Amino acid sequence: MKFNLSTLRYHLFIQQGILPERVSLETNFKVDLNMSDNQIRRMLGFVQAQTGVNFPKDIVLYLTDVFDLMIHIMIRAVEVEISEEYYNTISEPVWQNFLWTKFTIPMYAHLN
Fold it and tell me: How far apart are CA 111 and CA 37, in angstroms?
């Protein structure tokens, strides 16, 4: 199942009684929706079940709004797809190291 804003709205309405029109990309979970940390964790459990994306344990501390959630899902979904598709098939050590470090490329700058 694909996860999008409509899916999130439906889940929040069914599970927590939050009206769909109150949920937009700018909606803050704690301020606008008055969600507790436990409610946010339950919502993230639903997101994890739908997308396969794992979240850090402390995500409730810095996840503020729906936009942040969608960005986390997009970034981590790429990691999930690439780990399944590429980690076991690339034989070059350089590429394996590149993928295992989550696409971090060292950048060096020289100021004249």
Answer: 46
Q: Residue 103: pLDDT above 60?
A: no
What are the CA-CA distances from residue 40 to residues 31, 81, 112 (Å)? 12, 25, 49
Take residue 18 and report the two structure tokens written for it.
Answer: 């939050």
Options 1.10.1200.10, 3.40.50.2020, 2.40.70.10, 2.60.120.10; CATH for 5-100 is 1.10.1200.10
User: What phi, psi does 66 have (nearest 5°)?
Assistant: -65, -40
pTM: 0.66
